[in-house]
Write the structure tokens for this entry.
Amino acid sequence: MSRDKFFEWCGRRGLVMPGQISVVLGVSPQTVRNWRKEEGEVKYWVSLACDGYDACVEANLGPVPQIPRMSVETFNNWKQRCQLHTDDEVADVFRLTKQAIHNWINRGHFPEWLMLACLGFEWRLRRREAEEAAAAVQDTPGATSQTGIVPSIEADQP
């Protein structure tokens, strides 16, 4: 996602001030100001977090959903739901290094943005599965298509 598209996305959701954006995405206001100054693409996890935010709003969790912090248990449950078995696979999801993922797990400390990005990835995964299932039904003679498939987004609560 380009920086321009990211800030357009923010504007359509009424997130115009760095402080507003930082609260939603779990980064510092200075990080948001830096993004505004830089050229090119935002980090890939930002686009996942944007989808996570949209999924939360779609699930009627409000304009500033209260997303719990990630824990090792919650992270492991998310990996299992998404069928991610290795740190390499998780690193590929976020386009980060395996070492970053390893450090999060070993320290038991995760970035604030991670839960929203995980929700965004899972939302994309469930949406793709629903689209593939609908396409398979359409390709089956005499079958009827299900409508209204909305991916379930469940964060493990402590």
